[in-house]
């Protein structure tokens, strides 16, 4: 089969498109024919060598959509069944989805029923599942005023589309470090855009609900824009910092503020199918990718996602 292999950490140029043996099925694992996957920042971090547990060479890829090609669980995962896989240790402890086929543990394969096109479906797993879980953790209502920090990311846009789809009257503001992206954010559906300059938001406004996709690097500044009794969700960690340092929760969260998060590694099949249903029924619309690449264009896909001047929204690969 064709796959993308990285033999040592480094730039996108280290991703090599080549022939490799198709994985052989083993007990408790099934073979999935990959129909599409999204490019995620965590894969870029791993490619750069920021995942110490990952041993090279490795086929990256923490998510995929596809169909069962060979199965060891014919009852739950019959051949031809449409499936989604997210997280676990795919693309890290074992080879992932940057390939025509991927061998996965059966308990990490989730059967779905959908007629969505593959490029649209490939936009959903990690991005929309995380966005919807974060939406639920924030307990958003139609009375809220929402801020999305890191709005030009695929997760930021997905989160906005969920909020606007389910609560059209809610005002959603997005942030960007690149002013030239402001108009595009408005075109996507954001009501207002704020510049994030040197880690500080250029506004005095406060919001009842905030999702911070930059993570620990910006969380204290984001909390300063959180209204009394408001809630902030830290997820995504696009700022390349993983832990909160010198964070005093008693002081930072005074004013009855609350901090929450969502871990996409805890996959709830009902939650996943619920978000798919909402998209199919049109409650959440225009979710397709901004760019689609072939498997042999994986270098270009990575370079686009990590280009801060150009990158915007969800990028998927269709083998």
UniProtKB/TrEMBL annotation:
UniProt-recorded Gene Ontology molecular function terms: NADPH binding; oxidoreductase activity, acting on NAD(P)H
Superkingdom of this protein's organism: Bacteria
Transmembrane segments: none
Alphabetic keyword roster: NADP, Oxidoreductase
Enoyl reductase (ER) domain ranges (all copies): 10-317
InterPro entries assigned to the protein according to its UniProt record, in alphabetical order: ADH-like_N, ER, GroES-like_sf, NAD(P)-bd_dom_sf
Alphabetical list of Gene3D superfamilies matching this protein: Medium-chain alcohol dehydrogenases, catalytic domain
Designated name of the protein: Quinone oxidoreductase
Organism: Staphylococcus felis
């Amino acid at each position: 089969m064709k796959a993308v292999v990285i033999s040592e950490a480094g730039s996108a140029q280290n991703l090599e498109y080549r022939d490799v043996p198709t994985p052989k099925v083993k007990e408790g694992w099934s073979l999935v024919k990959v129909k599409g996957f999204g490019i995620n920042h965590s894969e870029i971090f791993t490619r750069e060598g920021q995942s110490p547990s990952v041993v090279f060479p490795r086929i990256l890829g923490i998510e995929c959509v596809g169909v069962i090609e060979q199965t060891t669980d014919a009852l739950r995962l019959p051949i031809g069944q449409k499936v989604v896989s997210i997280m676990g240790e795919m693309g890290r402890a074992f080879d992932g989805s940057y390939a025509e086929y991927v061998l996965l543990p059966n308990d990490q394969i989730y059967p779905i029923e959908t007629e969505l096109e593959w490029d649209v479906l490939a936009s959903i797993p990690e991005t929309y599942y995380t966005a919807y879980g974060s939406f639920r953790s924030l307990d958003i209502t139609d009375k809220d005023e929402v801020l999305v920090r890191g709005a030009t990311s695929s997760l930021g846009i997905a989160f906005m589309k969920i909020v606007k789809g389910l609560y059209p009257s809610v005002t959603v503001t997005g942030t960007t470090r690149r002013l030239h992206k402001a108009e595009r954010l408005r075109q996507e559906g954001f009501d207002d855009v704020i510049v994030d300059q040197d880690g500080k938001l250029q506004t005095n406004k406060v919001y009842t609900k905030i999702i911070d996709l930059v993570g620990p690097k910006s969380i204290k500044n984001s909390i300063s824009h959180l209204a009394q009794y408001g809630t902030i969700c830290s997820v995504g960690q696009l700022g390349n910092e993983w832990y909160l340092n010198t964070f005093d929760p008693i002081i930072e969260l005074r004013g009855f503020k609350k901090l929450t998060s969502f871990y996409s590694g805890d996959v709830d099949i009902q939650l996943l199918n619920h978000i798919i249903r909402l998209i199919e029924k049109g409650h959440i619309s225009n979710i397709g990718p901004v760019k689609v690449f072939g498997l042999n264009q994986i270098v270009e896909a990575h370079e686009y996602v990590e280009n801060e001047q150009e990158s915007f929204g969800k990028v998927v690969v269709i083998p």
